[in-house]
Batch of 3 targets.
Target 1
Amino acid sequence: MSGTRWARRGVALALTAALTAALGACGSDDNDSTGTASGSTQASAGTSTGAAASCGGDAVKIKVITNLSSPASRPFPEFGTGAKAAADALTKDCTLGAPVEVSVCDDKFSPNGAAVCAREAVSDKVVGVVQYTGFGDSIVPILQAAKIPVLNSGTSSSESTSTYSFPFVPSIPALMGEVSIAGATGAKSLVVTPVDLPSVKFLTGVVAAQAAGLGIKALSPIAIPPTETDMASYAGQVLSSGADAVLPVIGDTQSLALAKSLIQQGASFQDGLWISSLASGASPPILSELGSDAEGTLAASFTWSPTDPDGPGMQQFLDEVKASGQPSGANDLTVYAVAGWAGVHVIADTLKGGDMTAAALEEGLNTGRNDPQFENYGLPPTDFTKPAFSSGPLAKLRVFTKYSSAWKVNAEGTPEPLAPDWFDVTQPLKVQ
C-alpha cells in the first residue's frame, strides 16, 4: 500500500481513550467558527510561569492543547495540570536558564476550536506544542507551516506523517500490549468490540496479526455503532462468543456501559475477561464507577501509572504535582496527567544547553539531541530518530516505540504492575 494511502488512514491510529476524540473529529459540527476563543481560553485554563521572579530572561513558551470543556467527549484538564507542574519545576530549578511558561488552550472538542488553538500557538511564538486531541489534522498543518514541532498521540494522518509531529504517547503499541497481556494471562481466544467505523478496521487487523503471532484466536469483531448507548445485546454477543478476553476499542462512555452490561449478565473480571487501557476502559473514573466489580481488570498503558510511586519517574511526577499545587485527587493523577508532564520535560531535555527556539527543538527531536530520557518521565523507551517497526505497515508511520506497560486492578480498585518493567509488544509477555 502506498505511503499516501497510509496517510489517509492515519486516523485509524486513534484507539481506546484517544479514540473518543478521533470519533468526534468524524462527526462533530463546527460550532466554534468565530475563532475568538483565545482570550477566554487563557482565562479559564490559566498560564503557568512558575517561580519566574527567581529565573530571569524571556520565558520559554509551550502550548498545551486538549479538550477542557465540551461534554461531547471526556475533558482532560489533568493533561494541562501535569504540564504546568513540569513547567513550575523547571522554572524553580531554572533548568533552561529562563522560566518555562505553559498555557493551555481548550479545543472545545471541535476541529475549528483545535485550529484556533494552533493559530494561538503561532501568535504566542511558542517553541513547541504538547497536545492530546482528536483533531490533529486541524492543528499539525498550521504548526508545520509555522515550523513549530508538536508532541502528540498520533491519532490523525498529519500526526502520523509530518516531520514536525512526534507521537510520544502512541496508541498502537498499547493496543498490541493488550493482546500480549491476554496471551500472558492464559487467554486462548479474544474478541474485539470496535466502534463501527471503516477506519477502525485497521485496528482490528493489528489485533488479529498480534494475536496470530502469539497463538491466540481472534474471533470475529463485534462492531458497536458510535451512537449506541444500550450495550446489553453487545455484552450478550461477547459472552456468547466464548472468548476468554474482550478488548474494547470504543470511547470511555461506551466502555463503561459495556463493562456494566457484562457484569449484569454474570461476567467476572477476576477471570481476566476485561482487557483495556488505563486511559479508557480502566481509567480511574471507570474503575471508581465499577467499584469492587473492577477487581481483576487487566490493562495496558502508554505511560506508567501514577498509582505505582515506585515506577519509573512516578515519584518525581507526584512530588512536582504537589509542589506546584495542582489538583491531586485520584481522578486527577491519571496517565493523561503523566503524559502532559512528560511532554514538557522531553521538550526541556531536548532544548537544554542550546537555543530556546522552535527550530532548535524540531532539529533536536528529529536527531536525538541530548538524548531525552523518556523512561525518567514515565514514558516507554522511545527514539524519535527512527521508526520502532522496521518492516510492515507500521514502518510507514511515525511510531517510535514498541513498548507498553501491563497492569491488574486489585481489590481496592487500584492498578498494580502486572509486569515489573516496560515490555516489548513484539515478544511474548511474562507476568510476575
Note: The mean pLDDT is 87.
Target 2
Amino acid sequence: MVVLHVYIALRWRARLRGVLGRSPEILDAGLLIAPCRAVHTCFMRRALDVVFLDDKDRVVGCVSGLAPWRFAWKAGTRRVLELRAGRIHELGIGPGARIETVVLNEL
C-alpha cells in the first residue's frame, strides 16, 4: 500500500483543468481527479505520471512520462491520480497496488 497526500478535483472545471497552470507542489503531492476515466496533456509543457485507480483505489494501470498533447485511459478506471514525471518509479507504484489518499485540499 502507498499512502499519498493529495489535492482533489471533484468539480467539473477543476477536473477539466487538472494540473494545468497550477503550482508544482500539487504535482509533488498528487492531484486526484474523481470521477475520471481518462486524461489529456493538451496545452501542457511537461510530461506527467498518471495512475489509474478502480473504485477500491487499486491501481489498474500506470503511464510514466505522459508527454504533452497525449491522451491516456485504462478500462476499469474510476479515479485518476496525476503526479510529477518520475514519481511512479520513486514510489514503486504498479498495477495491483493499493493507494491510500489523504486529502490536503479540494481545488
Note: The chain has one domain: 2-106.
Target 3
Amino acid sequence: MTGVDLSIGISDEDIGPFLGHPQIMQKVELRKETVITVTRKKSNNFWDVMYNGPSESSEFEGKAADALRMGARFGVEYGGTTTAKISDGSIWMYDALEKSSTTTICYGYRVHLRLKATSSGEVYCLKNAVLTGHTVTLNADGVTEETLEFTSSVAAGTVAGNTFDVALTSVAEL
C-alpha cells in the first residue's frame, strides 16, 4: 500500500433565480458522498479484474455478457436469491434486501479505514460502497502503481476501540 485518501463531500444544487431575481437564492443539498482511494504497487491483475472483469457468470447477478465485461464494480447483492452474487448494478441498493429480511441491505462493499492503530483507536467505516474508478500509472523507470476508488452515498461513521462495523446496513440508514 502506498497511499490512502479519504474524501468527504456534498453534492448540491443552486435554486434560483426565480421571479426576476438575478441572484441565486439558496443551495439545496442533494446527497453526501464519501470516497476512499487506495493506491498500491501493481503486483498482479487482481484490481484490473475487480473493475473490468471478467466475472464468473454463475456467480454474477445478471446477464452472462455483462459478467464478461463488468467485473465486481458493484460488490455483492442478494437480489431475491438465497445466495449472494456479484451485483451488476441494475438494482437500487434499497431493493437489495439480505435473504428474506425486510430491514437489512446486502449491497456493495464495506471498507474499513483504521485511523489509529491503538486499543482506543478509531476505524472509519464506509458502507455500501461501489468501485467508481481504477487507474494504472506507468513511469519511465518501470515502477507501476494502481489506484482503486470506492464511493458511497450512505452515511459513513467511525467505530471506537479499534474494531470493525460488520452489521448489515439497515433500510432506515438509506
Note: The first strand starts at residue 3 and ends at 15.
